Each structure stands twice: as structure tokens, then as C-alpha cells.
TrEMBL record:
Co-factor binding details: Binds 2 calcium ions per subunit.
Residues annotated to bind Ca(2+) 1: D145, G157, D159, S161
Name assigned to this protein: Peroxidase
UniProt keyword list: Calcium, Disulfide bond, Glycoprotein, Heme, Hydrogen peroxide, Iron, Metal-binding, Oxidoreductase, Peroxidase, Secreted, Signal
Entry superkingdom: Eukaryota
Chain positions recorded as heme b binding sites: H269
Amino acid sequence: MRSNSSTGGQPSPEKRCLLSRNPTNCFLHTRNVAARSNVTFWCWDLTDRQDIKASANGSSTADSISVLLQMFLQYLSTALFSLATIRSVYGASAPKRRATCAGGQTVQNAACCAWFPVLEDILPNMFDNECGDDAHGALRLSFHDAIGFSPSKGGGGADGSIIVFNSTELTYPANNGLDDPINTEVPFIQAHGVTPGDFIQFAAAVSLSLCAGAPRVGFMMGRPMPVAPAPGPDGLVPEPFDSVESILARMADAGGFTATDVVALLASHSVAGADDVDPTIPGTPFDSTPELFDTQIFIEVQLRGTKFPGRDPGQGEVMSGVAGEMRLQSDHLLARDSASNCAWQSFAGNQAGMQSAFAKAFNKMAIIGHNPANLIDCSDVIPGAPPLPANAGPHLPAGQTMNDIEQACAASPFPTFTAQPGPATTVPAIPQA
Ligand code: HEM
């Protein structure tokens, strides 16, 4: 079966479109990214939310099996290729050399040059160069794709299955709302011919570079196509109404994350909000500075809860301490449970500690389900974020005092912060993309 590519025109001979119900939803998968050769079109259908499967023109179970077989072979060849590349580039006897890309950038591995055009495209065209709704969505998507792995239940982790098998994974309640970032990302995946697994983690790393105060995280390339959806519908992706015990157990199971790692990862909720917890108030932020990757989330979630931002609180929502702000029950409990409260407190006002713990945990999360030896380190493509503005130090929201902090960690007192001047803070909603 042949199809036009997303870039338009007639397909070149080496491009094949497999089993697409809707050819516009094909994207270019490069088996050999370094050499940019041997390209194949893998397809899925986002418009009617059909997964990769037999197409309408008389295909059969055998077709599906053959596609799965082809995908498996693809997986194997990518893995073998990546291994060979890693060996040749990073092998003990191989000299350390840097490659110069067409745009003049230097990278450790020439294969990484392919990501600069992606970077230059998505910064202005996908993210509008801002730490806004699309950047937040890309970060959340990276978590929900990666966490879909369990040694006992299966799943491919950070493999792009949430996009390729969207018709399955988007039915899982925990993935509510992720159709937005998926629809945003798919055209860029199609245009640049990279795997969805790589793109999701790349986009998240790049999104962070737009959020002042964020650490520079790494990026590894080489994730092959996913072979199956993450198991579901319940269980693998934590929900805001889950207990601390079950969230920590799930995160340990998925990637060996400690309680401190989990709390560090939740620094992501400093550039976040909810559209669907209470769908009557989309874009309700989790802290007062959703455009800054700061430690306000760790301070503001520790405040006594006094109000809901909307009229009908959603499942997994508890009262927040600041008007216009939403607090997830999971964040609230992690800040108070003895298993995690001291880790939570340790990041309040500790920008450098939070940055390094987040980056370490994020880098681990981004390769769940993969052997890092099979991936190529392209971290040198990821830009650094600007530092926090000088006037953005840790603080209590206006109108609050330290008496409003609910001390939870038994080992040491919560650090002292002063309130911003002026009338009590009301946080505006995050503008929706
Ligand atoms: C561990 C338990 C976690 C739970 C229970 C949880 C839960 C949630 C919920 C309920 C939302 C709101 C979704 C909506 O209604 O739109 C949300 C948003 C978000 N989460 Fe988490 N999350 C967790 C961990 C993480 C992690 C590890 C990351 C990233 C590394 C992350 C990044 C985000 C971001 C960036 C948003 C905002 C998305 C947007 O504004 O479009 N979360 N999370």
C-alpha cells in the first residue's frame, strides 16, 4: 500500500505506508537515523482513533500478525543498530570525537545532529517559545508514556505507545486530557520522521528549557517503535486519588524510584495545572507561578487548605490554600505522609537541590523500558532554561503567614518564608492553547 507523506507529494520509492486507514496519519520512521537511510512509514490513525491494524481493503488477522512481526523485526534491527553504534562511538578503545552538524553545532554523536531541525521547529511552532499550556502538556505526556511499564504486568515504558496505541491508552481514565498534547505533537513527529517514543521525551526535555528555573535535563535517542499498548485500564498511571502507599509502590515498580525521586518528579507540578479534574475550570494552576519551574509548589501545597477553586471539586481534589489554585489530593498527602514529607519539605526554597534531584529522576524516567546501552546520548541538543527572574525568590503568597504552614516533617522545621506584599493572592487560570 502506498501513501502520500505528511510532507506532501508522491511518496519516494523507499517509503512504504503500512496499513493506514488514513494516509495523512502516516509518519516517517527512520530505521537508521545516523545514515538517514532505509526509511519506512509506520501508520496509525488519530482522526478516528484506530490503532495500527488491518485496513479497510480486505486485510486479515494474518495482516496484523505480519505487521506485528515486521514491527518486532524493526525493533530488533533498531536495537542491534543502536548497540553497534554505541559500541563504535562509546567503546573503550574508540577515541572521543565531536561531530559538527550542518548548522555549526557540535555534538558528541553525529546522529544527534538530526534533532537540531526538530528543536528549531518545535520551539516556535509547537511551544510558541513559552512555558505555557503546550509545554506543560508535553511534560505530562512524557510521564504518562514512560510510566506505562511494569516488570510483572508488561508495557514498553517510554516507547511512544501512548501515541501509536492512542485508541487504547486514551481510554484509560488516568490519561484523560492527553489527546491535546498528542494532537499537538503528531504533526511534528510526522514532519521530522522520528519515533514517537523519542519525540515525546525530546519534546518534554525541550519544554523544560522554556520554563525559567528548570534544570537542563538529558535526552537519549533510539527508542524503537512500540509493539503494544501499555497495560490498563487501571493501575500503571498514578491517579490523584491514589494513596501515598500505592503511588510510591507503583513508582518503585516502574523504575525503582525512591520516595525522594517521586517528590522530586513532582516539581513538574510547579509548571502545571488541571483541565479535567474540575472540567468547569480548565487551566487551573497547581501553584501561583505556573510559568516558572520554582519551588512554590512545595511551599503552597504545605499551606492549610481553605477553599476549592471551582464549585464542584473533582475526584482527587482537596482544598487549596490560595484562591484560584487547585490542589491534588496526591500532592497534599505526599507533602504530609511520613514516607515523603521530609523529602517534600527539603525542596521548599531549595531551587538547586530541587533542580538536581528532578533532573536525575527525570532522566531515569525518560528511559523506562529501555537499556541505556542501546540509546545514543544526545543531551547536547537540549538547551538550558533561563534562571529564575531576580524577583522570583521563594515566598508565601500574599496574605499568608508561617502559621498557615502545616508542619509535617518530624525531623526539622519547615523553612521560613515571608509573604509577598499586597492583598491576598488570587491565581489566574493558565491561558489555554
Ligand atoms: C505521581 C503522581 C502523579 C499524579 C497523581 C499526577 C496527577 C496529575 C493530574 C490529575 C493532573 C491534571 C490533569 C488535568 O486534569 O488536566 C496533572 C497535571 C500535570 N502533571 Fe501530574 N501527576 C503525577 C506525576 C507527574 C509527573 C511525574 C510529571 C512529570 C514529570 C507530571 C507532570 C504534570 C504536568 C506538567 C501537568 C500539567 C499538564 C497541563 O497543564 O496540561 N505529573 N498531574
